[in-house]
Amino acid sequence: MFELLLYKLAVSKKSIPPVLTLNNRIFSEFDEIANLIELKGLLKVENEGNSIVDSYSILCTETLGSLMKYFLLCEKSGSTLYQSFTSVYPWPLGLILFLIYRNRTIKNLKVKEIWPLTYEQALIKFETTVKALSNKIQEINSDYLFGDDFTKADAHLYGHLYTILHTNISEHENLRNILVKYKPLVDYVNNLERDVHGLTILVS
Amino acid sequence: MSSSSTTEPRLAFTSLCIWPAYGALPSFDPECLGVLAHFAFSRLNVPIKTNLGRLKFYKERLPLLLSDNDNIHLAAGYEAIVDHCKRSHIDIDEKFQANIADLLALNALVKSTFVPAVLDTFWLDDTYRSSIINIYARSLGGFPLAFFYGKQKTESIKNQFNIIYGDKNFDQTRKSIFEKGKKVLDHLTDVLGTKPFLFGASPTSIDAFVFGYLAPLIHGPASNSALARYASSRKNLCDFVNRILTVYLGDLAKDNDTTDSVSTTIPTTSNEDRLRDKVAVIAVGILTMCAYAYLSGLIRIEINQVE
């Protein structure tokens, strides 16, 4: 019974992080929270730039995000993902949740045509994307992707790159080695990190 | 393909298999059209094959790039073929290194929002679905392959949408796909402006990709759909499609038309298929009648041994 409850909690929408609670309302996942922030006027985005920002957000989530998932699940991957489930949930729930997540993610990556790539092809795709973003940041010569304004595309890019650079996931080692070759991107992450560390976050 | 080829890069392939022409389009299939435009932009001369057997049309994923006298399948599908070209150092985006991030971002946006909207119009909208299947049915030889192909395609697209957007409220999902598709059309209109191509005077891979999905939407049987009417109302987008059709793919569309008319005089595999069908139907009919006659007692078979 307890395990069933845990499972329900684990797969319910409420538990998909990040979760923001505001006046008894729960905002879950990145887009919902980002929309709320834009709606409250905390993040200014002009209508013209909206689609460009969206396109960069999609590039980060669909390409970088999907490739990161690919490297965690591909044949050459280790047991990091499995351990992340079993360290939180007791056996066999951890294993079941891992298998469900693996199955869903592989289906998703197949639809996005990422899963059929070979390991080397995936690395090339990652490097092409990272190189392009690095050139963009170098060209614009600013702390953010779109000049002086912080956008949700910056949030997406920072989130993905920070995970690769500063978390010790063995499956992402090759990605890290590629990323450190592009100094403008490493500097971009470090600049944003200073901003993020300046925030006071209450964790309950 | 393009008559204006000056320096022709060499790729180890012998032919490209695609779905056949439809009206002014050299192929109706969006991926095939995208690859044709990509090859035309790269000034690559590729022998085009549209006269495949109906089973091959049903089984293989098209466009299909073949090598070594058509014995080796090099790559199938738009993405794989473009990747293959890049690996063979044929990259039309090479000149755009400065804007490559914008190009990749626009590609990601079109792929995740505009492509689902077009596929939804073609394969999930009951008003246009049968007309779309009829186009593919000509190559598949009608029933039953066309029926199964249409069913499979619709199911796989529904399945894809369920995987990506979740399976909570399918009608709501379709509405949001349509709205996002319209938004991307607005964005493409702004990006294109008065330029001949999305990133200036020369074509890029994203031009080929957008053209592949925009052309059948505007010039196909679903041209009356809400998304197609929205696209047609954008003059610069229509001009963009028509310009690529006439300047880059004009020769090819004509070529296909002539091969279609020639095929009536030269015996082809489709005639053989028809003859084989007739023989098969007659044989099955005779066998059924004989079986019925034997089982109902009209015919008896007696074997007498004569010494």
TrEMBL record, chain A:
Biological process, per Gene Ontology? mitochondrion organization
Q: Which Pfam families does this chain map to?
A: GST_C_6 (PF17171)
Q: Do you know which Gene3D superfamilies this protein is assigned to?
A: 1.20.1050.10
Q: What is this protein called?
A: Metaxin glutathione S-transferase domain-containing protein
Q: Origin, by domain of life?
A: Eukaryota
User: What SUPFAM superfamilies does the record point to?
Assistant: GST C-terminal domain-like
Domain Metaxin glutathione S-transferase: from-to ranges: 129-191
GO cellular component annotations, sorted alphabetically?
A: SAM complex
Keyword terms, alphabetized: Membrane, Transmembrane, Transmembrane helix
The organism encoding this protein is: Rotaria sordida
Has the keyword Plastid been applied to this entry?
Answer: no
Where is the chain membrane-spanning? 81-101
Automatic annotation (TrEMBL), chain B:
Mitochondrial outer membrane transport complex Sam37/metaxin N-terminal domain residues are 55-152
Give the UniProt subcellular location, in the record's own words.
Mitochondrion outer membrane
Q: Which residues form the Metaxin glutathione S-transferase domain?
A: 181-244
Q: Which InterPro entries match?
A: Glutathione-S-Trfase_C_sf, Metaxin_GST, Mito_Protein_Transport_Metaxin, Sam37/metaxin_N
Could you name the domain of life of the organism this protein comes from?
A: Eukaryota
Task: Kindly indicate whether the keyword Transcription regulation belongs to this entry.
Answer: no
Q: Name one GO biological process term.
A: mitochondrion organization
Q: Does the keyword Transmembrane helix apply?
A: yes
A single GO CC term for this protein reads: SAM complex
Q: Where are the transmembrane segments?
A: 279-299
Q: Which UniProt keywords apply?
A: Membrane, Mitochondrion, Mitochondrion outer membrane, Protein transport, Transmembrane, Transmembrane helix, Transport
Record-stated family: Belongs to the metaxin family.
Q: What is this protein called?
A: Metaxin
State the species of origin.
Rotaria sordida
